[in-house]
């Protein structure tokens, strides 16, 4: 019986090899820094820039989570 399990593309594997070298703590710190920077901007009255920077936190934290999962579970 044939196994038709989908495989990762070469670009995905290359990206995962590069990003797996970055510690997960970097993503956590970047997300928290984005939140802190957003709070400071909001406090200083730069509302539109604060909202933009504040939205960076979620993608950074998600990338850190993905990085952690790939490191512990593998990509295939």
Question: What would you say this structure looks like, in words?
Answer:
The structure is a single chain. With 76 residues, the chain is an all-alpha fold. Helices cover 72% and strands 0% of the residues. The protein contains 4 helices and no strands. It has helices spanning 10-19, 24-43, 47-54, 57-73. Helix 2 (24-43) packs antiparallel against helix 3 (47-54) and helix 2 (24-43) packs antiparallel against helix 4 (57-73). The longest helix has 20 residues, at 24-43. The model has no long low-confidence stretch (mean pLDDT 84).
Topology of this structure?
Layout: H1 10-19, H2 24-43, H3 47-54, H4 57-73
Helix pairs in contact: 2-3, 2-4
List keywords for this structure.
76 residues; mainly alpha; 4 helices; 72% helix; 0% strand
Please estimate the helix content: over 70%
Query: What's the total count of β strands?
Result: 0
Gross geometry: elongated
Total helical segments: 4
Rg from Cα: 17 Å
Mean pLDDT: 84
Strand pairing plus helix content: what structural class? mainly alpha
Note poorly predicted spans: none
Portion in strands: under 5%
Biggest β-sheet description: none
> Element order, helices and strands?
HHHH
Distance between the termini: 20 Å
């Amino acid at each position: 019986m044939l196994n038709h399990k989908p495989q990762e593309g070469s670009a995905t594997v290359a990206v995962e090899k590069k990003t797996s070298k970055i510690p997960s703590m970097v993503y956590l710190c970047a997300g928290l820094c984005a939140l802190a920077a957003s709070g400071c901007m909001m406090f200083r009255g730069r509302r539109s820039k604060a909202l933009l920077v504040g939205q960076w936190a979620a993608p950074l934290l998600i990338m850190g989570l993905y990085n952690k999962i790939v490191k512990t579970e593998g990509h295939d």
